[in-house]
Amino acid sequence: MQALVDQLIQDGYFQGVPREVLYAASMALAAFAVLSFFVAPLAGVTSWLERRVWARMQSRVGPNRVGPQGILQWLADGIKNLLKEDIIPTAADKWLFVFAPYIVFVGFLATFVVIPFGGQLIVADLNIGIFYLLAVTSLVVVGILMAGWSSNNKWSLLGGMRSAAQIVSYEIPAGLSVLTIIFVAGTMSMQGIIKGQGWAPWDWFLFYNPFTFGAFFLYFTAALAEGNRTPFDIPEAESELVAGYVTEYSGMRFLFFFFAEWGNLYVIGAIATTLFLGGWQVPPVTDNPILLGILQFVVFFLKAYFWVFVAMWVRGTLPRVRVDQLMSLCWKYMVPLSFICLLGTAAWMVIWPRGNRLASVAMFIWGLGILALFFRRVRYQIRNARPEIYLKPYI
Amino acid sequence: MSEPVPAASEAFHTEDMTISMGPQHPSTHGVLRFVVKTDGEVMREAIPDVGYLHRSIEKIGEKVTWHGYVPYTDRADYLAAMFTNQAFCMAAEKLGGLEVARRGEFCRVIACELNRIASHLIAVGTFGQDIGAVTPFLHALRERETINNLMEEICGARLTYNYIRIGGVGYDITPETCGRIVELLDHFGPIVDEYNRLLSYNKIFIERLANVAVITKEDAFQYNIVGPNLRACGIKWDIRRDIPYSVYPELEFDIPVGTGEKGTLGDSYDRYMMRIREMQESCKILRQCLKMIPKGPAISKVARKFKPPAGEVYVRVEAPRGDMGFYVISDGSEYAYRVRIRTGSFTAMSLIDKISRGLMVADLIALIASLDVDAPEIDR
Fold first, then answer.
1. Taking all residues of chain A, what is their mean pLDDT, rounded to a whole number?
2. Cβ distance of A59 and B139 shorter than 8 Å
């Protein structure tokens, strides 16, 4: 974005306008564009899609009335929530209660500053990109704690506390998995990490060595936990804590929390894609920069959105773990394993400083094998699944 | 010189948090309330507070005629209305010295076992939902829907049946319906396996339930735990076999007991698996009944103004939530003198206080779900 503004100034536009004002204006413009043309529809459509996918898994129909296949359901829900009464409990700590959703929202939205959309499409390619990302996502936990505390509701408080413990704990395996990739890539810039990979799967960091392969799954699991998703959705466990930290919220404030949650799914997918799955790298098929940009955007989006779908899939399948099991999973298994991944990768880089192509290809084939086994298993399950029977009712 | 260091408990005085869980709470299966004292996530105690769904069904029994009370018994446990119907009718028949039409007895067993499957489907479905898996719940409800359709075909109602009447059953089961029940059973057998694959053998699910809220044999006896919850403790006690009624002595079926397959004997997982196994046994019973059902009237002749001679009687049936007893006193008039209903959920509630100490809050949900308590049955 800065480069673009500099270019425009050099070309003679905006004579007499101070440079700082231009920067600020361009930032505001970018924020507006990303929020209204990408994040809002994305989170909305994700909410709709999740309900549809979930319904499909549960042999239901799901929302299908607003627009074709119900795709505009999120707009209807948004308007409904905007029109709802904004209830602030009398016993609540008013200021904290009001500000909590914004903090969660800001923590989520600020990640889009460094998330790339394509080779050239990125708001700011910070040289500490991934580090910045880890930092701002931690802001979410502050908002959730504020919401839990200020609601003056015991369920909310329990939910907030659970969430704080969970997010803080799972930052560690997630951070260590990310660090593994920073080792390999030698940079923290998001674009830099993507440029370190190739379009071919065996050039992805996922298949760089067995340790990065493991780090990917550790990262994805930890990210699900950080995003409060099933099977780690204990902060808002509806069967235990009513609705956790959002119990007392209504209307648009309630929606902000869920806006952040659904949007966060894409962020998880985008980070995984950037770090492990080659980002927007496409085969060299065209020289046209616009076409290339579109292609890169589509490739990146599809890769990232695939993981959103996986998260929905997991949510439709798994039960929820208990608080102590969640903690023991993190500290007893995931943290040591992520350290192993980190040290293993470090050792690997000492032995093969430029990577080992043969190992990458072997890892790729192994990954394909796992995928094939998985699909075989899924096919077996589907074959054994009994569809609904329709016993003719007598009326 | 140096001051004594206060013990940690003195230095950081903490208070237990008292939470009122219910009567409006997503997983208390109706309107149940627990006063939970917790230290963070660990419970100090959970005291059940019952009575939110009291409808004085027992008192109504003294005010309406014998025939007229049958629809009221539906409401005592609306997830398993057939059994309350049957228990009351058996009590009335025993008082009046009535013979039940033989076809009627088979119709009763068929309807009851269908109802047992439906009730257990709700139990395992909500169990999944309480543990956080929503998909199995909806799959269970989908299967229950077909059973509800069959029930509608049999007796015209989907939840509160009023099907079993004094002397037999209200409507005969037609051959077409029998065919559909077989169709359902053919469909349902593999469904249980599917359910096992989806939920029962899920690693997280097992971790959540194994070794949680263990009920020992002694506790089970002392607190009068009945039904699947008792059998999960390893005690082979089933009214259908041990105090036989209806045509159950002629039928062959196993009584599943808990084995502690994934943890301790009598833990939540055992109680869960009890329901899964009993559904399979019910399928067996249904198949036999459909083969054995004789021709003849479905209801024997009963006076419209039914006046059993004075006396008192206690009958027991094996309902999905265990031994259900009806204690009925007649003074020879057209109204019962006293009706008392003994239900399994109510006694199970008394155990919760003892078992729940030291569990996590999430385990209390698992405990309630595994006991399969049902608010209308507790309060009546």
1. 84
2. yes
**What is the CB-side half-sphere exposure of residue A3 using CA atoms within 13 A?**
7
Q: Confidence band (pLDDT; 50, 70, 90) for A68?
A: confident
- The answer to whether B149 contacts chain A (CB < 8 Å) is yes
Kindly state the average pLDDT of the residues A100-108: 87
Q: Which amino acid is at A48?
A: W
- Structure tokens of B282? 């019910």
Dihedral pair phi/psi, residue B339, rounded to 5°: -125, 130
Q: What is the mean pLDDT of residues A18-36?
A: 80
Interface membership of A321 toward B (CB under 8 Å): yes
Tell me if the pTM is above 0.80.
Answer: yes
Mutate to test the interface with A, among B43, B114, B135 (most CBs of A within 10 A): B135
Phi, psi of B325 (to 5 degrees): -115, 140
CA B227, CA B80: separation in Å to the nearest integer?
A: 13
CB A5 within 8 A of CB A22: yes
Residue B325 pairs with which residues in a beta bridge? B316, B342
> C-alpha angle B251/B257/B262, rounded to 5°?
145
Contact residues on chain A for B150, CB-CB shorter than 8 A? 391
CA dihedral A256, A258, A260, A266 (to 10 degrees): -150
The per-type count for chain A, helices as H runs and strands as E runs, is: 15, 0
Is residue B3 classed exposed, middle or buried when 0-12, 13-18 and 19+ CB atoms within 10 A define those classes? exposed
Residues of A in contact with B128 (CB under 8 A): 319
**Distance from the A150 Cα atom to the nearest Cα atom in chain B, whole angstroms:** 17
Chain B residue numbers touching A238 (CB-CB < 8 A):
26
Mean pLDDT of B211-223: 86
d(CA A318, CA A359): 34
Q: Looking at this protein, which amino acid is placed at residue A225?
A: A
The count of other CB atoms within 10 Å of the CB of residue B371 is 29
How many residues does the structure list for chain B? 380
The answer on pLDDT for A230 being more than 90 is: no
Inform me whether the C-beta atom of residue A308 falls under 8 Å from chain B C-beta atoms: no
Q: Are A344 and A218 in contact (CB under 8 A)?
A: no
**Whole-complex ipTM:** 0.80
- Please report which confidence band the pLDDT of residue A394 belongs to, taking 50, 70 and 90 as the band edges: very low
- Using the 8-state DSSP alphabet, how is residue B293 labeled? P
Nearest CA in chain B to A161: B40
Nearest beta carbon to residue A385 from set B41, B194, B362: B194
* CA neighbor of B263 nearest in space, from B222, B193, B212: B212
Q: Do B25 and A238 touch (CB under 8 A)?
A: no
Q: Which helix (H) or strand (E) holds A184?
A: helix A154-185
The residue with tokens 């608010």 is B375
Cβ(A339)–Cβ(A256) below 8 Å: no
Q: How confident is the model at residue A8 (pLDDT cuts 50, 70, 90)?
A: confident
Angle at B213 between CA A236 and CA B208, to 5 degrees: 45
Integer Cα distance of A315 and A298 in angstroms: 25
B369 vs B358: CA distance, rounded Å = 18
**pLDDT-above-90 percentage for chain B:** 3
Is B194 within 8 Å of chain A by CB? yes
Interface check A230 vs B, CB under 8 A: yes
Q: Which of B131, B187, B365 has the CB atom closest to A386's CB atom?
A: B187
Mean pLDDT of B267-288: 89
The answer to whether residue B1 scores a pLDDT higher than 60 is: no
Q: Are B208 and A321 a contacting pair at CB < 8 A?
A: yes
Contacts of A80 (CB under 8 A, 6+ apart): none
The residue in chain B having the minimum alpha-carbon distance to the alpha carbon of residue A321 is B204
Is the Cβ of B207 closer than 8 Å to some Cβ of chain A?
A: yes
How far B313 CA sits from the closest chain A CA (Å)? 39
